[in-house]
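We modelled the chain as a single entity of 125 amino acids. Its sequence is:
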Amino acid sequence: AGCPSLASLRVAFCEDVTDESIKAIVAGCPLLKHLNAGGCSFTALPEDFGDRLPNLEYLNFQQNKLTSLPHSIVKLSKLKQLALSGNPLQEPPLEIALKGLGAIRTYFEDLGEGATTSTVLKLVL
């Protein structure tokens, strides 16, 4: 099942795209280079997201309901464009995610070294 040779998929503004739909896309479309699922209704990504889509270059998940990103997202080494605005991201915080994959990688590395985040206090330097 799936679309093993599909390179580009646009399902933007389709409210029928759920968490299960995203899991199916990730599992069934390993050669995706472009994924546009902005303005849908999903709330989570599979933990192996970055492992299963190694060719991804463009990712638009704007205006969804994502509160966290899987750590595996930092494995998207070919990613050139990442759009995440309009999500209630908490891990990493949206302010960090909007800075791109490098900032997300640093955030997760810092957490791995014992740093913690606070949902109560934000410090702006």
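As a brief sanity check on the tokenised model: The helical segments are 19-28, 49-52, 94-97, 101-112. Strands lie at 8-10, 34-36, 58-60, 81-83.
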